[in-house]
Amino acid sequence: ATAPCAPRGALIVFEGIDRCGKSTQSNMLVNTLRSRRVNVEHWRFPDRSTKIGQKIDDYLHNGVQQDDTAVHLLFTANRFEKRNEMLRLLAGGTTLVLDRYSYSGVAYTAAKGVPHLDSEYCRSVEVGLPAADLVVFMAMPPEQAAARGGFGAERYEKLDFQRKVAQQYEALKDSHWLTLDATLQPELIHQQVMGAALPMVENAARGAPLGRLWD
Ligand code: 2DT
Ligand code: MG
């Protein structure tokens, strides 16, 4: 076992296919943690505000064609350009709640089925990023997510593709994942999220070491 480190913030990630409720639940988590005086920041990936993020946004809006490997590496670079700030915030005791992270990077690209862009390759370029203390995976049948409002506006929002993404997510699950039934009432889901997130915040505050992808 590794020796305890200094107190830090927790890294909590929400994952799932498009329209499964990640934004709602990550907002609820941030609000409840704040009401309990936890220092917390809410981020999402891709971060479309950077130059790299703007290129990603162009691609997602279907306008700009891009090589699949180049796009994959843009998403990855978009995380690495935020890496130092993530580490700084965590070390300073701020808990980070992320709406998507490396797991989306792997699941969405691997779902394309491009021969050399398999899950193993996709993971390999994420090595060196901090690992999540908790991945909340919001499980929802792709048909149900597709029926929600707003679906279909961006490049990946096609039912057959979302099914493939869901399959890729299945293969990524490890001991840090909590799979929740995203078809339940938001308040019920939130209670389950809190039950898993609070112990992670407490562990991190006690100096549990921050993991590294993909240990
Ligand atoms: P949002 O709908 O959450 O804005 O995401 N994606 C995301 C990838 O393909 N690779 C990644 O690394 C990340 C973080 C998921 C926009 C789309 O971008 C996909 C949906
Ligand atoms: Mg989306």
Percent helix range = 40-55%
Q: Supply the number of helical segments.
A: 9
β-strand number: 5
Shape: globular
Strand order of the largest sheet: 2-3-1-4-5
End-to-end Cα distance, whole Å, is: 14 Å
CATH topology: Rossmann fold
CATH C-level name? Alpha Beta
Low-confidence stretches: none
Q: pLDDT average, as an integer?
A: 96
Oligomer: single chain
- Radius of gyration computed on alpha carbons: 17 Å
The domain tally reads: 1
Largest sheet: 5 strands, parallel
Kindly report the name of the CATH homologous superfamily: P-loop containing nucleotide triphosphate hydrolases
CATH architecture verdict: 3-Layer(aba) Sandwich
Kindly name the structural category. alpha/beta
Run of helices and strands: EHEHHHEHHEHHEH
